[in-house]
Amino acid sequence: MYDIDRHFMKKNIITVCNIVLLVVAVILLDWRLQQPMLFALLVVPLAYAWLKFRHKSQSDVPETFKRFESIEMVVSVLGQPDDSILLNATRANELAGNILVYRDRKLMIIDGTEVNMDDIVDVATVNTATPYTLGDYQVVLTMRKPRKDYIRLPIGQDADYAMQVAKDIIDQLRSASASFH
């Protein structure tokens, strides 16, 4: 699964490193050229870059984004789910092996992440095989922006079961909202 926290942390670390390198370069230039006005002229762009970085990092993560660590944590916060869809029988008691469905809230918990049902645009199955390897089947959820484009759910090597999982997800979406196509 794609980990949204790791993606934003990596972007933020790169931006902070660039700002630190710029500050070090300005200080070294100021020290070498003995021009105190050079330092003063570059404080304004640095302040602007810092404010832009803070604003962007706060607006990148949606406010409704939550990450759960276990099924027990989800149940303690949201209550008992209306339904669940089994993705992998060997991981049936883990969040990665289930999709927990809360129809009244139009919410699905997929691999510990809250997903609003209204944000799901399409559900499809994909075979990841190549001519040289056997591939697993995946159920791919196409998402609306601003979250991310796709959520890929590994199913295994059973095409019929992948189709059944996709059908179950579509049925849950339809029962929660009549506007799903």
Chain oligomer state:
single chain
Compute the number of helices. Answer: 4
As residue ranges, the low-confidence spans are: none
Distance between the termini: 25 Å
The Rg value, from CA coordinates, equals 23 Å
How many distinct beta strands? 7
Strand order of the largest sheet: 1-2-3-4
What is the general shape? elongated
SS-based structural class? alpha+beta
Mean pLDDT, rounded to whole units? 80
Percent strand equals 15-25%
Fraction in helix: 40-55%
Q: Return the string of H and E elements.
A: HHHEEEEEEEH
Sheet bearing the most strands, described? 4 strands, antiparallel
Task: Tell me what the structure shows.
With about 180 residues, this protein is of the alpha+beta class. It has four helices and seven strands; from the N terminus they run H-H-H-E-E-E-E-E-E-E-H. Strands 1-2-3-4 form a four-stranded antiparallel β-sheet, covered by helices on one side. Helix 1 runs antiparallel to helix 2 (about 35-60). The longest helix is centred in the first third of the chain and has 30 residues, at about 5-35. The radius of gyration is 23 Å and the shape is elongated.
